[in-house]
Design brief:
The complex is a heterodimer of chains A (328) and B (414).
Chain A: H1 2-7, H2 16-51, H3 80-88, H4 92-95, E1 103-107, H5 114-125, E2 129-131, H6 139-148, E3 153-160, E4 163-171, E5 177-186, E6 203-207, H7 212-222, E7 235-242, E8 245-260, H8 263-267, H9 269-274, E9 278-287, E10 291-301, E11 310-314
Parallel strand pairs in A: 1-2, 1-3, 6-7
Antiparallel strand pairs in A: 3-4, 4-5, 5-10, 7-8, 8-9, 8-10, 10-11
Chain B: E1 15-21, E2 26-31, E3 41-46, E4 55-61, E5 68-73, E6 78-82, E7 88-92, H1 96-99, E8 108-113, E9 125-132, E10 136-143, E11 152-153, E12 158-161, E13 167-173, E14 179-185, E15 187-193, E16 198-202, E17 219-226, E18 229-237, E19 241-246, E20 255-258, E21 264-269, E22 275-280, E23 285-289, E24 294-299, E25 307-312, E26 318-323, E27 327-332, E28 338-343, E29 348-354, H2 357-364, H3 378-413
Classes of the chains: A alpha+beta (328), B mainly beta (414).
InterPro entries (chain B): WD40/YVTN_repeat-like_dom_sf, WD40_repeat_CS, WD40_repeat_dom_sf, WD40_rpt, WDR74/Nsa1
Keywords (chain B): Repeat, WD repeat
Organism (chain B): Sesamum indicum (Oriental sesame)
């Protein structure tokens, strides 16, 4: 009888009170079991440490990220075609430091509230960036103007309902154009204990841009920044790709030497005398902001042209066959 | 339930396709059939990656013996190579250095290798028709020799100007190779008689719409509709329209069909003379019955980049498409199902089919009867190679043995 009851699914019970009671019981059992397992594991680790043995290897949790579907477009480090393609692409002149990146920032036709303050934040992040009012100009006209004035990229911030919601990055003079969805924007002034960045050229961190498309987007982002960072400034700008979302963060860092106490040296008198307090270098971060998340919607070949343009990549619903499939 | 991503591909029939990309590489893709269908894969790569050698246009002379490929490169030179092994047969250096300094502005957009011979001089000659963006068309014949240095091209090619202004973006030669059509940005579709080099027909732009708005003409792709009739043309425009022109009827389009929202980038005709395959800038591929203008259906298969070229296999019911997403995709016509997709790493510019693949395979395997089986399936191929290897090993060991025995015998002699 008891066995039968245990195998009985709570969802099959029709009486609600009974059902919820059984469910709660089951849940509690699971919780207890889990805790027991964790305790056992911890104890084993501790025992191994005391015996001086190798502790059992930590288990790696299975995430959506590390069970990603196999993708043939992931770049391999020994691919000569990739490097030849990189040398020939549109960003190579900036990335080889043949010319200094110069960025034009503009907005959509209407721009208010958070838009302008986001732009002031961006201007402090990207060196050699210039804000131009949009006015009533066509974007194609602006592209022409920027080409003439030797800009290397244009960033357009699109605002909807007084909230920035899209970002367009156009590489000049001949493309490509990336269209991102912008979300989770936190401005600098809204970040607690934020730092104020200096005018040094920042270091750039691009994480996890693995596929061909990811490489291209990564290089597009890379071409916005100067390629010779001032390490003295200790500023770092991060674009971290995780599950096709690109997270933007801006930090100041500092390396501090910290005296670390050693518990073993306390008991032994010999060591205490000669041993200087062990110096340990730790890195501390201070966020400068802004903070936002980007998601690629489309990558267009050539500069902005919605009518006759060719897309290198557009997201289509039929491509979402699995949640473990990523494109960047 | 998580949706699974495994595509049950029925597999391709045996075929051979060649693709051309922006780094100037030519890649050969072969599919071999088996019991459960073979997958297409890249078997050969010709050329070294070099961005100045970006292939702008390619044409194939698809014949039983000695098929040739004509390739127009970004640097202005034209190459004729063998479609079997990629050997260079003739090389025409760029003419623009001598005439004009601006090579970049006047790049070759289209190229055609003639099937039949213009002059009945010899079987080793081939005739090339090229057209540049500025509208300079020229026709020249090349005498092919044994090596690229031996190739002689005549010094006085036939030259004419297709348009005074605007850019030529598409051109096509009809099946009987008597007529050619040209079209492009602010150039209406026009048809030329290739024998006399005269323009015989020009289209007229459609009238303003009810709001009085006139859309500027921009043809991005065009083709002749049927094999034996040069009077019907299909053209794709920048304003996502597919237009059917009839030379014998009127100068305005007989019919025009809208397709989605981005520019039509590739148009290919079927052999039955009524179906047209269209590909657009955002990677949608569809077939249209052009007699009625009804959309027959779309080819769905995660195609994410602009389609640059569509090729119809002359015999088998398959089409191939390629474009900026750097995949070559092979589709079934009837079921509109994806048969195979090959990732080729670069932005592809065009694709052609080699329809005599099967014959060639048999012809190539005269000394070895086993290689007929080689086309069957990958497993069998593996077995075959294993067999070969083992046989080689055997023979090798035999040789060693025989040597040993010889040595022994020699030793005995001593």
């Amino acid at each position: 009888m008891t066995k039968e009851k245990e195998t009985l699914l709570p969802s099959a019970i029709k009486n609600k009170e009974k059902r919820s009671a059984v469910h709660a019981k089951l849940k509690h059992q699971k919780k207890v079991e889990k805790r027991k397992k964790a305790k056992a594991r911890e104890a084993e680790e501790k025992r191994a440490l005391e015996l001086g043995e190798e502790p059992p290897p930590r288990k790696i949790p299975r995430t959506i990220e590390n069970t990603r579907e196999l993708d043939e477009t992931v770049c391999k480090p020994d691919d000569e075609e990739l490097f030849a393609g990189n040398d020939a692409d549109e960003f190579s002149s900036v990335l080889k430091q043949e010319c200094i990146p110069k960025v034009l920032i503009t907005t959509s036709r209407f721009n208010s509230t958070r838009g302008p303050s986001f732009i002031t934040d961006l201007l402090s992040v990207i060196p050699n960036a210039h804000y131009h009012k949009r006015g009533t100009y066509d974007l194609k006209k602006i592209v022409e103007y920027a080409k003439k004035k030797d800009f290397t990229s244009i960033i357009v911030i699109h605002t909807n309902r007084r909230e920035p919601d899209a970002l367009l990055i156009i590489a000049l003079p001949d493309g490509p154009t990336a269209h991102f969805k912008l979300s989770k924007l936190v401005l600098r002034k809204d970040i607690k204990n934020h730092g104020n960045p200096t005018s040094h050229q920042p270091e750039l961190v691009l994480n996890n841009f693995t596929t061909r498309l990811g490489h291209r987007v990564g290089r597009l982002i890379q071409s916005l920044f100067p390629q010779d960072p001032n390490f003295r400034g200790r500023r770092v700008v991060t674009f971290h790709n995780q599950r096709d979302f690109i997270f933007f963060r801006h930090h100041r860092y500092i390396f501090e030497t910290k005296e670390s106490k050693q518990p073993e040296s306390k008991g032994k008198g010999k060591k205490d005398k000669d041993a200087q307090p062990q110096e340990k270098v730790i890195a501390r971060l201070q966020e400068c902001g802004p903070r936002f998340t980007l998601k690629l919607i489309s990558l267009q070949h050539g500069t902005f042209d919605t009518k006759g343009g060719e897309y290198e990549w557009v997201h289509k619903p039929e491509m979402d066959t699995s949640r473990r499939r990523f494109f960047l | 339930m998580p949706r699974t991503t495994t595509v049950e591909s029925p597999g391709c029939p045996p075929l051979r396709a060649l693709t051309f990309d922006v780094l100037g590489l030519v890649k050969v893709i072969e599919a071999s059939d088996g019991q459960n269908g073979g997958a297409a894969k890249m078997v050969e790569r010709w050329g070294d990656p070099d961005s100045s050698k970006c292939v702008l246009a390619a044409s194939m002379l698809d014949r039983e013996s000695d098929p040739l490929l004509g390739i127009a490169r970004k640097c202005g030179s034209i190459e004729v190579i063998s479609a079997i092994n990629g050997d260079l047969r003739a090389h025409i250096p760029s003419l623009c250095q001598a005439e004009e300094a601006s090579c970049e502005d006047d790049a070759i957009t289209r190229l055609h290798l003639f099937k039949k011979h213009q002059s009945e001089s010899s079987s080793r000659s081939c005739t090339l028709l090229t057209c540049s963006t500025k509208g300079h068309a020229s026709m020249e014949s090349i005498e092919l020799g044994r090596s690229p240095e031996d190739a002689i091209h005549d010094r006085s090619p036939k030259k004419w100007n297709v348009c005074a202004s605007g850019n030529i973006l598409c051109s096509k030669v009809d099946e009987n190779e008597n007529y050619a059509l040209y079209g492009g940005k602010s150039v209406e579709v026009n048809v030329w008689d290739l024998h006399e080099c005269v323009k015989i027909w020009t289209a007229k732009s459609p009238p303003q719409n009810s709001l009085g708005i006139f859309t500027p003409t921009c043809f991005t792709s065009a083709t002749f509709l049927s094999k034996d009739d040069h009077r019907k043309l299909v053209a794709g425009t920048d304003s996502h329209q597919v237009r059917l022109y009839d030379i014998s009827a009127q100068r305005r389009p007989v019919m025009s069909v809208d397709f989605r929202e981005t520019a039509i980038k590739a148009v290919a005709e079927d052999v039955d003379g009524r179906t047209v395959y269209i590909g657009n800038g955002s990677g949608d591929l569809a077939s249209i019955d052009i007699r009625t203008g009804i959309l027959l259906g779309c080819f769905i298969g995660k195609c994410s980049g602009s389609i640059r070229s569509i090729a119809r296999h002359p015999v088998l019911p398959v089409i191939a498409s390629c474009g900026l997403d750097s995949y070559l995709r092979i589709w079934d016509i009837k079921s509109r199902q994806l048969l195979s997709a090959v990732f080729l790493k670069q932005h592809l510019t065009s694709v052609v089919f080699d329809s005599h693949f099967r014959n060639k395979e048999v012809a190539g395997s005269v000394p070895d009867p086993q290689s007929v089986n080689e086309v069957e399936s990958p497993e069998q191929v593996a077995i075959c190679t294993k067999r070969k290897k083992s046989s080689k090993e055997h023979s090798g060991s035999k040789k060693v043995k025989s040597k040993k025995s010889r040595k022994r015998s020699e030793g005995n002699d001593y």
